[in-house]
Amino acid sequence: MASLLKMRAYENESPRQNISIFDVERNLEAREGLKEKELQRKQECDREVEDVVDYLAPYLALLGNPAEINKQQALQIRDDCLFDYRKLLSVRGDKIQKMLNLEKHNLSEKQKWFEENQHILTRTEKEAYSIYCSNKIFHIHTMEMRLQKHQAQFSIRCKKLENYLKNDSRLSILYK
């Protein structure tokens, strides 16, 4: 009882207010954390700006990085670059489609297994099956959305590359 009274007297003599972690104005730690996150975000944006991809570098390297190229070489470089980029995007789309098909196949196999064995399964096994199906359906839905986005972005990305190639000074001979 005496220790309780001492603690109460101490609290009355030196009041200390608890500051919520959500009160950014008064919570110094939260404010410092926000400043640090903002700084990291800014540095990341700066890094992204610095990471400009030179799509022509591998094709020019095959020619020995000449100072100037003729019209035939420029045409070949542009066509090869566009062809390879379209091929890369197609391979990515095919990979997503294969993963989607595999997930659908795995889900259908599990559903067949469940239909055959549901009468002998325990309640926990049925719950585990339900969780498995929910996760697979989520993965399938996510991959379908990813595939749709990829397909929608295909032509947009190709147009962006075409514009990049048109604006590149090394291929300016094609557009004179």
TrEMBL record:
GO biological process terms, semicolon-separated: flagellated sperm motility
Any single Gene Ontology cellular-component annotation: motile cilium
Domain of life: Eukaryota
Pfam families: DRC7_C
Dynein regulatory complex subunit 7 C-terminal domain boundaries: 68-175
Listed name of the protein: Dynein regulatory complex subunit 7 C-terminal domain-containing protein
